[in-house]
Structures are given as structure tokens and as C-alpha cells.
Specification:
This protein is mainly beta and about 130 residues long. About 5% of the residues lie in helices and about 45% in strands.
Length: about 130
């Protein structure tokens, strides 16, 4: 018989912000909070003269630093500049050229998009952040 658990808040017993989940095969455990994305960004049509977030989580804004170069600004900062940020873009033809992650700080990071010879503005640009919040 299946069960349904409905709660508004989950809290660890030993440490409120730490919940351990048993992994597949019952052989390892995973800290639930460590596996969650702490922020994500979706830029709609970076080719437009004014870029905008199409959708996001824990994001304040994006800054256009020039062709194919964007600063992603996190609302609730990370604990430090040592976190994982992944960026991915797509051209209007649907091809992915080259995306790179630039400088990182607790509250912002840079993502760039280029083809073989120069920076270009992508049609779609996404970023996801994993790590510890401040």
C-alpha cells in the first residue's frame, strides 16, 4: 500500500539543515541539501538589445558585459567562491558552440558564449549553481 506524506517543513534531528537520504541499493547515503540546485538562470534571447531572465530561482539579475559575456547575480549568496556553476548556451540554429565559466564570487559569476572565432550572443543561455549557501 502506498503512502502519502504531506509536510511544510523538513528538518534534520541532529542538525536542522542536514537530512541524510539513503541512496540506491541501500549502500550509501546522500545529504539532501548538498544535492539541490541553489540557483538557476534562464536568459531568453540573448541576441536582443535588452537581455532578461525568462525564469530563475535565487537570482536577482543578469548583467550584459558585452557580446556573449554575462554576469549572473545570485540573490542569497553562496558561502564562498568555491561552488559549482554550470553554463550552457544555444545559437539560433540550435547548435551549442563554446560556453565558459569566468570569475566567481560568493554572489556572482560570469558566463561567456562564443563560436570558433569570437564571442556571440546566444539565443538561449542557462546556468545552474550547486554548493553551500551562506
Amino acid at each position: 500500500m502506498a503512502s502519502v506524506l504531506k509536510v511544510n517543513t523538513l528538518s534534520g534531528v541532529t542538525t536542522a539543515g542536514s537530512i541524510v537520504v539513503t541512496g540506491e541499493g541501500n549502500s550509501t547515503t546522500t545529504n539532501l541539501q548538498q544535492g539541490l540546485a541553489k540557483a538557476w538562470f534562464h536568459i531568453v534571447d540573448g541576441r536582443a538589445s535588452t537581455i532578461a531572465l525568462g525564469d530563475s530561482f535565487n537570482a536577482t539579475s543578469i548583467t550584459d558585459n558585452g557580446t556573449g559575456n554575462y554576469s549572473f547575480n545570485i540573490a542569497n549568496d553562496m558561502a564562498n567562491a568555491v561552488y559549482s556553476a554550470t553554463v550552457m548556451g544555444q545559437t539560433s540554429s540550435g547548435h551549442t558552440d563554446q560556453t565558459q565559466l569566468g570569475n566567481q564570487a560568493a554572489g556572482t559569476f560570469i558566463g561567456t558564449f562564443s563560436n570558433v572565432s569570437a564571442y556571440v550572443n546566444p539565443k538561449i543561455f542557462n546556468a545552474t549553481v550547486h554548493g553551500d549557501l551562506a
